[in-house]
Amino acid sequence: MADAARPDGDLEGIAQAALAVGRVLMQCGARAHVVRTGCALAARELGAEQVDTRASYSAIDITVRLGDRSVTRMGAIGAIGVNHRLDQAVRRLARHAGEMTPAALLTELGRLERETPRHPAWLVAIAVGLACAAFGKLIGIDWTAFPAVTAAAACGQYVRHLLIHRAVNVFIVAVVVAFVAASLGALGAEALGSGTAYTAMIASILLLVPGVPALNAQSDIIEGDPMLGSARAVTVAMLLIFVVAGVVMAQLLVGVQP
After folding, report:
1. What is the SS3 assignment for 63?
2. Per-domain residue ranges for the chain?
């Protein structure tokens, strides 16, 4: 652990660095327990004696103490997604925070945000399409509908990628992607002569099921963060409402019945 005998000005840097670690972890989709642990680990490695953190869905605040001095800082949280690769990289960084200064940690954190690699959008789209088609087979689509669901879900994922990178509201993204994927899935299945066009339409939007946020909501409530867990649960419910709206619009357009 870093030497606790730091100049007065370092406590501000410790607070800012630990706050940044928590912000990135939240944006990566980490549970509240992981966010608190990451903040506390980074702050203590940098020299703080005591750390108190509170994370909400849109903001995070931290208080670090060293002797009789304390600093409290709050920061906004950006769009929350799922990025396990960056999440793991930030956790490793927090464990080695004692080997650097707060300013160096912030610099390295910024580098990780910029440079942590992602799979190409086209590869993700193909993988998502195949996954939705595989799940579709489990829920009853026939083999004739398999390529239609693969293509529809892949198109939906690519549309989602484009909209998210243009900072479109997440709920608007959900309804647009649900409409596009469901419409293409049903039309494609019917064009190929499938007898399971409605099921194909449902399978095509499985990429929109918010599995990670739903699990995090349960975990946060169980682990003693009911406010954050409830906020996540409400967000999940709203996403599902918009997904259903997109599917209903697609059903009205295509005319497919259960």
Report:
1. strand
2. 10-115, 121-254
Strand partners, 66: 69
pLDDT, residue 199, reads 95
Residue in the structure block whose two tokens are 């002569």? 193
Summarised one tens digit per residue, pLDDT across range 195-237 is 999 999 999 999 999 999 999 999 999 988 899 999 999 999 9
The two structure tokens encoding residue 170 = 């997440």
Helix (H) or strand (E) run with residue 183 in it: helix 170-191
Closest CA to 63 of 74, 48, 51: 51
Dump pLDDT digits (tens) for 137-155. Answer: 999 999 999 999 999 999 9
How far is residue 235's CA from residue 91's CA, in Å, rounded to a whole number? Answer: 26
Six-digit token pair at 101?
């200064």
Which residues fall within 8 angstroms of residue 131, CB to CB, at 6 or more apart? 153, 206, 207
- Pairing mode, strands 59-66 and 69-76: antiparallel
